[in-house]
């Protein structure tokens, strides 16, 4: 890796610290995909020198936490025991109070604590400590640059942030604060790379909007949300790299189709009508049953059939088409769960939280989206074994689904109840436990936190699938942090306007 410090400095504490900082900057600036092998090799070497680095007197909290986070993110085995050196000698349950004024150390600790897995109490305590003191620092006279960085991190920690949203922020941040990273060549390269990729993504967006225009959504689906740009942004959050061009196009079309389908179930059809639609979709081939559907539902069914036919033809140009069959089966599951929720709504039934989660796990659409994310990635990596894994309720996909559904319910349940809608997780918890809304939201936020720990556990080596596939699921979970950051950014699309403009409209 051309920008990493010389190997002769590698085994010194200072050299390792510089290397960690540089790898961190390369990843934050969004050019890490160019150096995946070099970063992997560097971090494995650093991992091997861990004990010497962590026990050295020159290794401060900032670098210790950075070491932990970078290696944990890479899937390498590290434990948080290293943080015991920063605990209070008189009270081993607390971190040293002297650390409360260590601005960079607190921020690094805060970021590291988000990569916790279950049972790592020391990281749970570290997160509380760092969050509390970073908020306190914001009220003092810290520099404007550091204040900006802390506000961003408190809102979107690194581990939970969409990669390109992170990139856009850090390009701006490093441009304003040259003292943070003294590497003008790296910064210039990141800017050039971002602008080059932006032009590629603009061309893809043009292709997608032309396809969407051909569906005549405003006239044929008058009840549906017109959100194709937001759909592309969602998928761009899952994979932005040039090598995933075909996968991005395919998955954007699928999520756009699913958006129409979701609105068809929620906002248009009666129970009897969507029951027929569900039956038709279980067959997924043109049949006389189509004639019993309202015109808008016939249009919906035709979009589904045409899209999967189109994807099958595209895949046949370069290899086998088995991936389409897996995606279709997930669609059938989704529609059955949609129908179950419509049945609850029709009967006014409020299920228990566990009963709700059984269907909501599917209607979050993450199982079908995670499956569909593999479809365009090529049979050489997205094998039948990979599809068997993703379609059999693996812990990581379940966790991502929990994050999506519960975060959605927390921010939108009041709006949903203003129109006739199935009970959300908030209402289910409130009724089951005779609890106020605040207690329900607090419980669900803890569930989301536990789901993130499930994801962190699944990302540790050996992973059940190649990292290239696991990252798609991870990035789906990350996308929720941005889309539901300040409300329901998909339904209230103005909430995403600034994100979308900064990524697709404005070069750096």
Automatic annotation (TrEMBL):
<protein>
    <submittedName>
        <fullName>Uncharacterized protein</fullName>
    </submittedName>
</protein>
<dbReference type="GO" id="GO:0120251">
    <property type="term" value="P:hydrocarbon biosynthetic process"/>
</dbReference>
<dbReference type="InterPro" id="IPR001906">
    <property type="entry name" value="Terpene_synth_N"/>
</dbReference>
<keyword id="KW-0460">Magnesium</keyword>
<dbReference type="GO" id="GO:0000287">
    <property type="term" value="F:magnesium ion binding"/>
</dbReference>
<dbReference type="InterPro" id="IPR008949">
    <property type="entry name" value="Isoprenoid_synthase_dom_sf"/>
</dbReference>
<dbReference type="Pfam" id="PF01397">
    <property type="entry name" value="Terpene_synth"/>
</dbReference>
<dbReference type="InterPro" id="IPR008930">
    <property type="entry name" value="Terpenoid_cyclase/PrenylTrfase"/>
</dbReference>
<keyword id="KW-0479">Metal-binding</keyword>
<dbReference type="InterPro" id="IPR005630">
    <property type="entry name" value="Terpene_synthase_metal-bd"/>
</dbReference>
<feature type="domain" description="Terpene synthase metal-binding">
    <location>
        <begin position="216"/>
        <end position="454"/>
    </location>
</feature>
<keyword id="KW-0456">Lyase</keyword>
<dbReference type="GO" id="GO:0010333">
    <property type="term" value="F:terpene synthase activity"/>
</dbReference>
<dbReference type="InterPro" id="IPR036965">
    <property type="entry name" value="Terpene_synth_N_sf"/>
</dbReference>
<dbReference type="InterPro" id="IPR034741">
    <property type="entry name" value="Terpene_cyclase-like_1_C"/>
</dbReference>
<dbReference type="InterPro" id="IPR050148">
    <property type="entry name" value="Terpene_synthase-like"/>
</dbReference>
<dbReference type="Pfam" id="PF03936">
    <property type="entry name" value="Terpene_synth_C"/>
</dbReference>
<dbReference type="InterPro" id="IPR044814">
    <property type="entry name" value="Terpene_cyclase_plant_C1"/>
</dbReference>
<dbReference type="GO" id="GO:0016102">
    <property type="term" value="P:diterpenoid biosynthetic process"/>
</dbReference>
<feature type="domain" description="Terpene synthase N-terminal">
    <location>
        <begin position="19"/>
        <end position="154"/>
    </location>
</feature>
């Amino acid at each position: 890796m051309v920008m990493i410090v010389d190997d002769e400095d590698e085994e010194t504490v200072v050299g390792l610290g510089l290397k960690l900082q540089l790898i961190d900057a390369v990843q934050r600036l969004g050019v890490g995909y160019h150096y995946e092998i070099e970063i992997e090799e560097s971090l494995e070497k650093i991992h091997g020198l861990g004990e010497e680095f962590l026990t050295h007197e020159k290794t401060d909290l900032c670098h210790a936490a950075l070491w932990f986070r970078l290696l944990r993110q890479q899937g390498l085995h590290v434990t948080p025991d290293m943080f015991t050196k920063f605990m209070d000698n008189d009270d081993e349950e607390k971190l040293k109070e002297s650390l409360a004024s260590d601005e960079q150390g607190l921020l690094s600790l805060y970021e590291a604590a988000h990569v916790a897995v279950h049972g790592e109490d020391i990281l749970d305590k570290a997160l509380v400590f760092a969050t509390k003191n970073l908020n306190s620092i914001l009220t003092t006279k810290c520099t404007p640059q550091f204040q900006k960085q802390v506000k961003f991190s408190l809102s979107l920690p690194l581990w939970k942030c969409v990669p390109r949203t992170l990139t856009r922020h850090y390009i701006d941040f490093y441009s304003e604060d040259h003292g943070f990273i003294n590497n003008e060549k790296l910064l210039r390269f990141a800017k050039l790379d971002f602008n080059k990729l932006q032009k590629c993504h603009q061309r893809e967006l043009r292709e997608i909007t032309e396809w969407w225009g051909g569906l005549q959504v405003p006239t044929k689906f008058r009840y549906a949300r017109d959100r194709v740009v937001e759909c592309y942004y969602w998928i761009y959050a899952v994979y932005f790299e040039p090598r995933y061009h075909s996968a991005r196009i395919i998955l954007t079309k699928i999520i756009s189709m699913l958006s129409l389908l979701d609105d068809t179930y929620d906002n248009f059809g009666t129970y009897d009508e969507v029951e027929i639609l569900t039956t038709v979709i279980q067959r997924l081939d043109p049949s006389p049953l189509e004639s019993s559907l309202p015109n808008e539902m016939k249009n919906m069914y035709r979009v589904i059939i045409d899209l999967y036919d189109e994807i099958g033809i595209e895949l046949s140009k370069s290899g086998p088409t088995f991936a389409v069959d897996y995606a279709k089966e997930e669609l059938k599951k989704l529609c059955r769960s949609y129908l179950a929720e419509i049945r609850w709504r029709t009967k006014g039934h409020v299920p228990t939280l566990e009963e709700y989660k059984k269907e909501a796990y599917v209607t979050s659409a993450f199982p079908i989206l995670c499956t569909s994310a593999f479809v365009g990635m090529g049979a050489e990596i997205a094998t039948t074994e990979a599809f068997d894994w993703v379609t059999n309720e693996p812990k990581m996909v379940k966790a991502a689904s929990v994050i999506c559904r519960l975060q959605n319910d927390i921010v939108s349940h009041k709006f949903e109840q203003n129109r006739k809608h199935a009970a959300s997780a908030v209402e289910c918890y409130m009724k089951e436990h005779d609890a106020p809304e605040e207690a329900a939201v607090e419980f669900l936020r803890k569930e989301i936190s536990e789901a993130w720990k499930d994801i962190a556990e699944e990302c540790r080596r050996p992973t059940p699938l190649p990292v290239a596939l696991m990252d798609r699921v991870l990035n789906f979970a990350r996308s929720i942090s941005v889309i539901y950051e300040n409300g329901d950014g998909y339904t209230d699309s103005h909430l995403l306007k600034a994100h979308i403009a900064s990524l697709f409209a404005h070069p750096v």
